[in-house]
Design goal:
174 residues; mainly alpha; 434 Repressor (Amino-terminal Domain); 2 domains; two-stranded antiparallel sheet; 55% helix
Length: 174
Amino acid sequence: MNEISGFGQRLKEQRTKKGLNQKELSSICGVSTQTISGYEKGGKLPTIDNAARLAKALGVSLDWLAGIDTPQPAQTHKPIRTLGDVAREIVRIHSYEQFDVSIEEEENAEYGAVVEIGTLCFHHPQFIQFLKNWTAVEKLFRESPMEPNLYNGFMDSLYKNLDTVRYEDDELPF
């Protein structure tokens, strides 16, 4: 097996294992669907930047995806320390398990609005604003031609706003 087809095979294997189609993976990592298809067919060799984006989006090491490290390492999750970490985790889960985000506002003197996601209910005003912004841009991304890099840049700015909100171990909401 040559390096190009080996990369493509591992890419497709991990993408399908995660239950993602090429368009969904493209929206997560910012690599076009045409480029992903080319990698999977073995006709293209990725840039280091694209390979790193794909590895990160799929939760595997770059070494494994490139065929340097034969066994796939066990996934480890970064501890949740900020509200930004919570937001990233929800978006990561959304990429695997589609769910509707429904926003219902109710006046609350301490927190402002209440936001419900399925059976989850968030009361933090900054997180509520994140959810409003995220659902709006997600809808735009699905309904109109938006470059994945623009979407990813917008999401990064939303995460950075929440990274300033820190949790202590005894304050974690779960």
